[in-house]
Amino acid sequence: MDLHLKIWRQKDNQSAGKLVAYDLQGLNPHMSFLEMLDTLNEKLIVNGEEPVEFDHDCREGVCGQCGVMINGIAHGPLQHTTTCQLHLRSFKDNDTIVIEPFRSSAFPVKKDLKVDRSAFDRIISLGGFVSINTGQAPDATVIPISHELAEEAFDSAACIGCGACVATCKNGSAALFTSAKITHMALLPQGKEERSQRVLNMVRQMDAESFGHCSNTEACEVECPQGISVLNIARMNFEYNRALIFKKK
């Protein structure tokens, strides 16, 4: 199949960027989207041109590094699918595909399709872990956790931190990402000891990173590759208000 690409090229964060057109012929429909970008880069290198910079790591839909906007949709047209798991068979022969980086003031472009998502790391560093001494790993039956609660916590923990929620939100909100991390810890016994300080610190850092407020459009859940529920945001709001009420002066 043949494809017509329009890819955002930007030298660095201080330079102006623009869409540049490329044509690729004879592509295998079973190629992944990133393999298609690899093919383009091989062609550019052979021609002595600068290859397109883009993030990737595991290429198995786990690490969350590969996210780009594809025809205006975070990760592309398939729901619950990361960019690296998207294949060319999802497009038609001679399609025009516009590829841009995730857009957010909190995700500055480093080069081309590569953005700086270290804002997420700073939010995690303020509470996305258990720091109290929980002792050695107990037997599985020592701390009873219902199946429903375990499943709910696991659903929240499934967030891969790709940033699609931020990129698709018209306000650039990180509420879905932050709330998923807060909910995961708040539901499990090991995380309850620090639940109040965790939510206060993580929400404060989220605001400091210049993410916008939740738009309530639920677009984040629609384009999240893991289908993280917006109910996590409701849980975060509950945990935040609870922490303020019981905050020690």
Automatic annotation (TrEMBL):
Record-annotated 4Fe-4S ferredoxin-type domain positions: 150-179
Any Pfam family the entry gives: Fer2_3
InterPro entries hit by this protein: 2Fe-2S_ferredoxin-like_sf, 2Fe2S_fd_BS, 4Fe4S_Fe-S-bd, Beta-grasp_dom_sf, Helical_ferredxn, SDH/FRD_Iron-Sulfur, Succ_DH/fum_Rdtase_N
GO MF annotations in UniProt: 2 iron, 2 sulfur cluster binding; electron transfer activity
Gene3D superfamilies: 3.10.20.30, Alpha-helical ferredoxin
Highest taxon of source: Bacteria
Requisite cofactors: [3Fe-4S] cluster; [2Fe-2S] cluster
Entry's Gene Ontology BP terms: aerobic respiration; respiratory electron transport chain
Xref: NCBIfam families: PRK07570.1
Family recorded in the similarity comment: Belongs to the succinate dehydrogenase/fumarate reductase iron-sulfur protein family.
Protein's name in the database: Succinate dehydrogenase/fumarate reductase iron-sulfur subunit
Native species: Sphingobacterium puteale
